[in-house]
Amino acid sequence: MSKDPVLQPTVSLKKNLTIALAGNPNCGKTTVFNALTKLRQKVGNYPGVTVEKKTGRLELSRGRNLQVVDLPGTYSLSVRTPDEEVAREVLLGRSRGTPRPDLVVCVVDAGNLERNLYLVTQIQDLGLPIIVALNMMDEVKSQGRQIDVKKLSELLGVPVVSMIANQNKGIDDLKSLLEQEIKADYTRRWRMSPLLEEDLEAMVQVLIDKGGLTRPEAFFESLMLLSSAAHIPDKAYAQHHHIMFSKEVIDELNQINARLVRQGVRARSAAIEARYEWIKFIVKEAVIDTLAKAKNWTHKIDTVLTHKVWGWVSFIGLMTFMFYMIFTIATYPMDWIDSTFSHLGAVVEQSMPEGDLRDLIINGIIPGVGGVIIFLPQILILFFFIGLLQDTGYMARAAFIMDRVMNKVGLHGKSFIPLLSSFACAIPGVMAARTIESPKDRLVTILVAPLMSCSARLPVYTIMIAVLIPQASAWQKSGIMLIMYLLGIIAACTMGWIFKKTLLKGQKPTFILELPPYRLPSFKSVILQMWERSRLFLKRAGTIILTLSIVLWALMSFPRQDNVEPAEALRQSYAGKIGQTIEPVIKPLGYDWRIGIGLVGSFAAREVFVSTMNIVFNLDEEAEETTLRQAFKQAHWPDGRPLFTPLVCISLMIFYVFALQCISTVAIVLRETNSWRWTLFQLLYMTVLAYVAALAVYQIGKILGFT
Amino acid sequence: MSDSEKNYRLLSNLKVGETGEVVEFVNESALSQRMEEMGITPGEKIEVVRFAPLNDPIEIKIRGYLLSLRREEAELIKVKIS
Ligand SMILES: Nc1nc2c(ncn2[C@@H]2O[C@H](COP(=O)(O)OP(=O)(O)OP(=O)(O)O)[C@@H](O)[C@H]2O)c(=O)[nH]1
Ligand SMILES: [Mg+2]
Hints:
CATH topology of the domain at 10-183 in chain A: Rossmann fold
Bound molecules: guanosine-5'-triphosphate, magnesium ion
Helix content of chain A: 55-70%
CATH superfamily of the domain at 10-183 in chain A: P-loop containing nucleotide triphosphate hydrolases
CATH class of the domain at 10-183 in chain A: Alpha Beta
Radius of gyration of chain B: 12 Å
Oligomer: heterodimer
């Protein structure tokens, strides 16, 4: 690499170029992006993983820098969903915060060439210089085919690099192409009928002369107009395309349209068909069938996983197995973390002088933060499994299996993908709702997504299950856990149905979803995702949970009471007062004021319930040297009745299934819906639902004679 | 009904494993356009691969890739049985 810029005076040192990665969903754009920028954006084997534009940098030789933009996938430029709109706006240079790209790298799934080339021909029309990154070349081979890359490049009139992005093959070729200057010299090779071409050209001329557009822009808009129902830019069109036309332009377009109608030509899909004809020709020339037999793994796997009976069995079986692993292999590292923290506590106790600070560390921070970190192994296992689901291609199948059920409740099968993602965390789930076409269906999906049990509920469930049946086998625990998760799914569907019937009535949604071939999950990407997740989890423990633990400890320790029993001191603390204030409200659910402190504490983050309980029962010196579970067992009402009866445990778990206790989710919902009203509505309905459900469980249980 | 007309059916009426050739969309709409953009164009070969466990949606193969559609959407597509 030359350090001296003077030696290369002419070549684009002038500015930082922007390149965009565009292509169909799931063709490997983000994989290419990560390879180019060394970033770690999420990849997964289902359409719609990326829903926002992401920016990174690529350093070239001679000190040049490229700004690389990863876009959400789209099948065409006639946009239907919010994520597709992001992609189109960037390509048209209408996106806020991103300049019009100087070059587009069209990532193409070589194993699915015909459909992928459709978008390429559309982007070519935009007049941008492009490079085609012919990805997934490994799959072409196993389909028993070969692609003549040179021929393809000639026919398309653009440079083509073949690559296998997930194995890092071809990335260097792409980089060296990016070093060169690439021009857009493009002549359109597809043609519609002569009559239509004439009318199209007339429209283009109007838009150039009277509308002030450039030729590619005018061409793009004319085609969009031709394919719209009315062929003229009405209000809806202008809104959808963010473009305004003058009265004069509209009048002229109206005349052309009248001519179109007179001629009686089918205009709406003429361009689509013409493009595909051209693509058929390209493929015929450039794709060679080898005589090798195609491997069809996908078909065989689907025969089982989408089978009438085995499909359901495998879905439930998979989840049970996941929980089983969570309760078995996670226990070892959990014990280890547990003893590390108690050791830490002992060390601090011995080495620090007595006082508030020591008290804060021993009774606030260590039990509060440590009590949450202990669940890291379980959460890692959960993410390992979710990573597998997302990387193999099962997500789309789950949507396929569940669509009928979702249809019955008036939702989208596609909604199931955001819902499944919410098992990890509601935030990516809410974001993933961007792939849904109808704004109403998208809103319903966002409203119900946090009902799916996320990883932050795992600690709460685990503790409650342990108290509920101390001697339970891992299978029993897994069974209870499965029920909690299924309850979340059922609640999401039911609430979705109610919202669709009442507040957000709308048409039946459509469901057109690509089912990608199964792919071997990349070990590296699964591990990376687990790492990323544990980083987030630890960060959360170090920020939100640490802060809340300190606040809660302070509320529970002040005002200082001397010469009273610890339990009495807690009762008279600020937190105790708060707990007692709400006790009348939660008593019907079977909870006392101490649980009340936990409920209030976990309002911003659910895991804090566990921290709070740790602190509450840690302050109680009698409970020293015992585990939280034992402390729970010993806790009782003033009249001596045990506090954590099985019924109370169940009622608490139910409460946590339904309640929206997560400040980050509230923030993301506000951003995605852009409406305080809906955000608050969600918070309200979930809280009411949680309360009513827990109340019903406790009261009905009591009537039935349970304790 | 003439012989040739008998060969025309809606995609939703095809059985698993049957193939046909796309003829046209029963009515044109934004939805039919989307399907065309995804490659379901007149003259293309289309195959019904399987039904979902609850019979709806269906999985089809078009231009070498797998796509899932609801039956309602499949009702919009007229095919010629080969
Ligand atoms: N076999 C094979 N798989 C690949 C290749 N490149 C990427 N993949 C896999 O293809 C899947 C999709 O990759 P992504 O990078 O997430 O695709 P994307 O285009 O960003 O997808 P969206 O964001 O959903 O539009 C992932 O499972 C990748 O691991 C490749 O060259 N060969
Ligand atoms: Mg992506």
